[in-house]
Amino acid sequence: MVHSVFKDMPTTIFEEMSGLSRAHNAINLGQGFPDDPGPEAIRAKAAHAILHGYNQYPPSAGLPELRAAVAGHYRRSQGLNFDPATDITITSGATEALAAAFLALIEPGDEVLVFQPFYDAYPPLIRRAGGVPRFVRLEPPEWRFTKAQLDQAITDRTRLVILNTPLNPTGTVIPRQDLSLLADLCRERNLTVICDEVWEQVIFDGRQHVSLIGLPGMAERTVKIGSAGKMFGLTGWKVGYMCAAPGLSRVLARAHQFLTFTTPPNLQTAVAFGLDTPGSWFSDMPAILEASRDRLTSGLRQAGFAVLPAQGTYFLTIDLAASGIHEADRPFALRAVTQAGVAGIPVSAFYEVDPVTHILRLCFAKSDATLDEGIVRLARARDLSLKAVPQLVEPPSTTMV
Ligand code: PMP
Ligand code: GLN
Is this prediction's pTM over 0.70? Predict the structure, then answer.
C-alpha cells in the first residue's frame, strides 16, 4: 500500500480543467498560458545555445550572466539593488523557488500567513515543509486585507508570510498602502515574507509594480520570487529566480541545491539575453494583453456578465451571481466546459476555509477570435445553467460592477 499524503490528492484545478477542455474540444480560458509562441529572438537564442553552447551542469546558483541580467533588470525597472554574486539564485520556475523558500525557512510547527485565494501550490508545500498555514480571507470586489484581519491571524508561532502581487487569480494589484501595512507588521513581529511577484511585468493601465522588498526595513526580511515564464510569455520554460539579502539568500541556495541543483543552461542564456536586450517585449506584451483584457471585458459586459476589473496578470474574473447565474462556480465551470465548450477556473479552488463560491476566472491571453468565441460559449453556458437551475429567489447582489 502506498503511504503518502498525496495518495488521495486530486490533480490541480488547472490540470483538471485543461484535461476536460481537451476531452470536450473546448476553448480553454482556464489554465493561464498565452496562445502565441513568445518572442522569436529569445526562442532563437535558446535554440542556438542548445546547438552551439554548453549543455552540461551550470553552477547551482545559476549562470553568472543570468544572475547579472536579473540584477540589471531589477535595477532598471524597479530601482532595486541586488548583488548578483550573493543575492540571486536561479531556479526551475517560480514553483521550485517557492518550494526551496518554504523548505529553507520553515521549521516544524511554524505558522505561515496565507492569503485566500492562494496560488494552489502554497498550502501543500508549506505543510510538507512542516508549516501550518493560517488563512486570511480576501473577498470581491476589491480583494483587500485589513490590519484587524492580520492581527487576528498572526500568533506567537507565526514566522512567515506568503504574499502574491499582482494577485492570481483575482487579477488585482495589492495597493502600496496595503503593502506598507503588511511591512509594518512584519517589522513589529519579526516576520519574513516570501513575495511571489511572477506577474510583475504583466501590469496594466500605466501602473508601476511595487516590490515589498523595496519598502523600508524589508530588504533583510523579504524573498522576492520572479519567473521568466511570465516575463516573456514562455510559461513552459520554468526559469525562475529568488532574490534576497545574503543571509537569506545563502539558505535559499542550499535548499535549491538539493531540489533541482540547477536549471537548463541554454534557457538561462536565452533569458539573460531577453533581460539584457532592450527589446520591445516589456512594453509590447502588457499593451497587447491590455487590449485583450478590454476586448473580453466589453464583450462579456455586452453579453450581460458582471466583470470585475483586472489590473494585471492574464486573468479577469466574472461575478456569477451578479451575472444572473444561480449556480456555484465549480458546477458552473464543469457545465461550461462539458456542455458549452468553454473552460474557466472556479476561484473557490483557491480557498481552504470559507470559500468565495461565485467567481469564475478567465484567461484573456488569447487571440481575438478565441476570446470572441469564448464569450458566445459562456453566454450559452449561462442559458444552459438557467434552464437547469432556474432562479427561485432574488439572488444576493454581492458585487458592484
Ligand atoms: N506563482 C504564481 C502566482 C503563479 O501564477 C504561477 C504560475 N502561473 C507560479 C507561481 C508558477 O510559476 P512557474 O511557472 O515559473 O513555476
Ligand atoms: N499559473 C498557471 C495559472 O494560474 C497554471 C500553472 C499550472 O498549471 N501549474 O493558470
Answer: yes
The residue among 276, 303, 325 that closes a domain is 276
Q: Which ligand is nearest to the CA of 122?
A: 1
How crowded is residue 208: how many other Cβ atoms within 10 Å of its Cβ? 10
CB-based contact 63:394 (threshold 8 Å): no
Residue 77 Cα to ligand 1 midpoint, Å, equals 20
Q: How much is the pLDDT for 8?
A: 87
Q: Which of 314, 326, 324 is nearest to 401 (CA)?
A: 324
Q: Distance (Å, rounded) from C-alpha 97 to C-alpha 82?
A: 17
Name the amino acid, one letter, at 302: Q
Instruction: For residue 362, give the ligand nearest its CA.
Output: 2
Q: Which domain holds residue 170?
A: 40-276
Digit-coded pLDDT (tens) for 273-285: 999 997 788 989 9
Single out the residue in 232, 261, 276 at which a domain terminates.
276
Assign residue 319 the CATH number of its domain. 3.90.1150.10
| 18 and 74 together in one domain | no
- Of the residues 12, 230, 315, which should be mutated to test ligand 1's pocket, given the most ligand atoms within 8 Å of the CB? 230
What's the pLDDT at 168? 98
Q: In what order do the strands lie in the sheet with 359-363?
A: 306-308, 315-319, 359-363, 345-346
User: What values do phi and psi take at 115, rounded to 5?
Assistant: -85, 135
Tens digit of pLDDT for each residue in 355-385? 999 999 999 999 999 999 999 999 999 999 9
Q: How many domains does the chain have?
A: 2
In a domain, 306, yes or no: yes
Residues 264 and 325 in one domain: no
Same domain? For 156 and 263 the reply is yes
| Cβ neighbours around 176 below 10 Å, total | 13
Confirm whether 393 is domain-assigned.
Answer: no
* Same domain, residue pair 26 and 115: no
Q: Does one domain contain both 272 and 285?
A: no
Residue 253, Cβ neighbours under 10 Å: how many? 21
Cα separation, 61 vs 64, in Å, equals 8
Of all protein residues, whose CA lies closest to atom 9 belonging to ligand 2? 14
Nearest protein CA to atom 7 of ligand 2, as residue: 14
**What ligand has the least distance to the C-alpha of 198?**
1
